[in-house]
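During the second year of the project, the team shifted from modelling isolated chains to modelling whole assemblies. The rationale, set out in the original proposal, was that interfaces cannot be judged from single-chain predictions alone. As a representative example for this report, we include one of the complexes processed in the last quarter. Its constituent sequences, exactly as entered into the pipeline, are reproduced here:
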Amino acid sequence: MTTQVNDNRYDEAQLQVQFDATIEAKDRIEPRDWMPEAYRKTLIRQVAQHAHSEIIGMQPEGNWISRAPSLRRKAILLAKVQDEAGHGLYLYSAAETLGATRNELTEKLVAGRQKYSSIFNYPTLSYTDVGTIGWLVDGAAICNQVPLCRTSFGPYGRAMIRICKEESFHQRQGYELLMTMMRGTEAQREMVQESVNRFWWPSLMMFGPPDDNSPNTEQSMAWGIKTHTNDELRQKFVDMSVPQAEALGVTFPDENLKWNEERGHYDFSTPNWDEFWDVVKGNGPCNEQRVAHRKRAWDEGAWVREAALAFAENQAAEEAAK
Amino acid sequence: MTETNSGPASANGSAAKAAATSANGTETKASSTRGEWPLYEVFVRGKRGLNHVHVGSLHAADDQMALHHARDVYTRRNEGVSIWVVRAADITASSPDEKDPMFAPSGDKVYRHPTFYDIPSDVPHM
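Output from the structure prediction step:
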């Protein structure tokens, strides 16, 4: 008995050494490899949250499909929302390789036990918001996701590669939509500026809390799950966005936003973190609506899932009887 | 079907029961995960001349639905000309451990590689 226990301990230590060496070599961990339980848990939490964000993210834009101003814009918006569904599915599939089940993840989402990006708790008040979301929200998502293509867990990285390829379409269609409106009437230009004003701060918050208040960052970086800190990515996004705003002819609602020659970066104000935490805790403008909508779709779709399964079983039984 | 059998009623009953249980095996299993559709792995041939490559997985009630879902999820932008789907449960895999003896036989056979053989550099087309 004692030898057995010792052997197991020795094995575990050996496995940890192999795992550490794989991470150290910047090689990838694959689903059936041994991994520390905390690594698995952290990844399930992060990948599930990411998947939920894609699925919940269909709602604010889906809101405008039936009211898109032309058939061209409607086709684009449909394709974009369909992509978000696809991205959610790539990510759920990655989470499942870690031992989570799809139903369990969805049930945790609709029960409010797993989070999604707080950005989707803000409403889309005008069709212009479709453009702003494409430009700023998907732009911020790209900033976050490009480094994740090299994350240490293989299936997550591969899902991110597929997603990043498609996000580029999302950002460009949004920017083009806004450019079109900026070439329109004065009222249309005002709509763009108003929309940008509403989405700028929530977009900056998408990178998560500041580094000194982000308890998971250090461990996630040691494991190669994250490769950049929240503040590094936020700065990168600000630096990228300012010239894009200038080209578009809009401003960001921050009087402290200016180039800092010494740092080689734009300075900007601190986002309102109280608002961020409030939205994360469930008090944003649309939290309840988003989760209720997802829950309704899940509950009302139950009979379809059951019927499809029953049909498949009948077909299989008939096939077997032949 | 068991009604046509002329055997003793009690034996019949238990046989029918056993058959029902085994035929419903998947359902019994599925209902324990609250009716989850089985998991399929998806392989896509990017274009003629290339192998099918694993791209990810999805859930579907049956093979046909798995193919349709695979088209919608993994080939929205002409990523493929052919799709294979296979139930994840039907895949047999080697152990993931690199030190697995499974791959040991090829480890020490350097003579299987062309670079093992020294050929003078002035010999053409080698």
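Strands of chain B lie at 39-45, 52-59, 82-87. Residues 1-33 of chain B have pLDDT under 50 and may be disordered.
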